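Page 47, continued from p. 46.
Same chain as before, 358 aa.
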Amino acid sequence: MLVWMIGLSFIMIQSIFHPFKSVSLSGEEWVPEIDSLSIATFENLSFQKQVDHWTSKKFGFREVMVRFYNQVLYWTFGECTYFIEIGDDCFLFEKDYRDSACGENLIPKVEIELKLDSLEILSDFLNERGKKLIVVVAPNKYRYYPDKVSLNCDDRETNYSHFTAGFNHSKYAVFDCIELFPKMTSQYPLVPKSGTHWSLYGAFRTAQLIQDSLVKWEFAGAPLEISAIEIDDTPRQTDKDLHDLLNIMTYAPKEELAYPYTDYHNPKKPRMLIVGDSFYESFYRLNIHSDVYDPESKLLYYNKKMFGRGRNISREFNADDLFVELYNTDVVMIVSNEGALKNFGWGFLTDAIQLLHE
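Result:
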């Protein structure tokens, strides 16, 4: 009984005063705001329910307890969070990408054709003004490591197969990393064992390919070279993002990964308008967006928020902002993972085409 009392006392002290530092759990978790106590909120029990829910998410040492519980399930039964799949050799996969590789999120072909037509219209508009359009398809880990996990869905129609059929006849540049990565000779992983995105090294190699085209089109003054590289067997940042989401106590498995740096000083830099998802964040982490592209370059993150040179400050944008960026940019680049092809452009193409016709 005394042990329980001491334990509860520690939990109460930690809950109220937080004397011990703890590492927050990874991922997003909804914690409700607590309404002001009033006769009405007390009588309808809303105040009590909110306090109960808030307390269950914020009690002392919760992070440690959750990680310990998850660790036991992981070690004992090989269980983990519902959206992650554990493959051979402890490779982790995000299940949403299985759905896209197997055609589970297939949209009508007519919708894809409309998006492809919009790309052609946008490309023509840009080409007429000496500008360019680039499409980047990020790698799908399920496709890149077929020996580590079984898909069992060969020869199915997918959004990717329909899009790539249209890309093959396009006037704009396409960097399809699903196709490119397996053909690349690389000493280091292009897709990490414990992450869902391309590795930071894989993102850099992709940026190099894009930069070569920017130089060819005379928007950039020099190729993107590696000035220094660190080799580390401890994954960093997004190279372990799936492992972080397991919220367990052990560290991510060792893997020899490369972390490149560039020292780019050429004054000729393209002004970019990027419409992208979380894969593009690697360009910020590698300082490519800030150092290799023009300072006025913008990222439209999921076509919802606009980021500039830094990734920490965003703002909402409207049609006027988009109009200015379309007419002042050198290159429009759309970066999409395979799972997001069903929402390709996230409405940007519709917005852009509507502005061009006004």
